[in-house]
Amino acid sequence: MAEKLSQPNPARSGWPWISLAAMLWASDQMLRPKAQAAGLTSLQIVLFEHLALAAIFVPFLIKGRAEWRGLGWKSWAGLAFLAVFGSAIATLMLTEAYRLGSPLITALLQKTQPIFTVTLAGFALSERRKPIFWVCFAGALVATYLLAFGFTGVSGTSASLAVCLALGAAAIWGICTVVGREATFQLSPSIVAGWRFLLALPVLLAMNLGSSSGPIGAHVNWQSIWPVAIIVLLPDAIGMFIYYVGLKRTPASLATLAELAFPATALVIGLVFRHEALNLGQWLGLALLLVCLHVIQMTKSISTQPIAA
Question: What CA–CA distance (Å, rounded) separates 187 from 1?
Fold first, then answer.
């Protein structure tokens, strides 16, 4: 994990590692609701998660201090943005979405993240879009609505708020992909992760102290804390580690296909273990979304001709 990402080697594909990481990430939809059902608030879950992750990654920060000692203010600003928005706020939004709405739909809506990433990257680079991009973009928007609500439309205030929170988290992570790429490209993943979790702690602590839900340690027991421990171990720490191991060895096109293990696993967990169901409109929305994302990511949908000033 401490190594910097190198160019993928097509001859040594690491797609199984990426698929395994995606499967571990999908387990999130089962673990966070368990912690909430045991009495923990979303704020507590995210705070305890970051406390554990910060403790795990502090040794990497100490060992790799030569990497970050000479960082400029732009890099520190990028790390702070990733920590406050990408780690603290977005994770809190996702966790609360699990509580308010369908964990399965909340998990599947995270596949919209590339829409925000690719769109923002195009504007940031002042690139002119090819027509196929806008066709796929419009299709992805329709697909997102269908995935969230099906043909029946809005199904209640809580469900609608959960959809907004899930999409908001995906949008923030999409923005963080663009912002963080330039600010932290010279840092290894473990250093970025360490500062991301560590810098998020003061914000989360202040939010917990200002909450009206009682003391930070309320409802903390084995029944409520073991799901958080599994989240830290599987989706967060191990999932991130094996993802970067696989990404270093896998071409981008193959990595994108390998990440389809995420919606597949999310569907199995939701349909089989949580006994949730998708209606026809939601199935069509999911299929259309995956097709649109594949076309956006796999084709030359972005022109290299800059927009005239």
Answer: 11
Tell me the Ramachandran region of residue 275: left when phi exceeds 0, alpha when psi lies from -120 to 50, beta otherwise.
Answer: left
Q: What is the pLDDT of residues 11-35, one digit of tens each?
A: 457 889 999 999 999 999 999 999 9
Query: Which residue carries 């600003």 as its tokens?
Result: 77
Q: Do the beta carbons of residue 296 and residue 137 sit within 8 Å? A: yes
- Stretches where the chain sits below pLDDT 70 are 1-12, 124-127, 182-183, 252-253, 298-309
Contact between residue 260 and residue 114 where contact means Cβ atoms under 8 Å apart: no
pTM: 0.89
Phi and psi (nearest 5°) for 128? -90, 130
CA gap 202, 163 in Å, rounded: 27
Max Cα distance, the chain (Å): 61
**Cα angle vertex 171, ends 298, 108, to 5°?**
70
229: alpha, beta or left? (left if phi > 0; alpha if psi -120 to 50): alpha
Cα separation, 266 vs 287, in Å, equals 14
Nearest partner of 22 among 191, 267, 187, judged by Cα: 267
- What is the b/e burial string over 23-42, where b = at least 16 CB atoms within 10 angstroms of the residue's CB? bbbbbbbbbbbbbbebebbb
Indicate the burial class of 134 (C-beta count within 10 angstroms; 0-12, 13-18, 19 or more).
Answer: exposed
pLDDT digits (tens, 9 = 90+) for 85-107: 999 999 999 999 999 999 999 99
Total residue length of the chain: 309
Rounded alpha-carbon distances, angstroms, from residue 25 to 21, 74, 234, 235: 6, 30, 8, 5
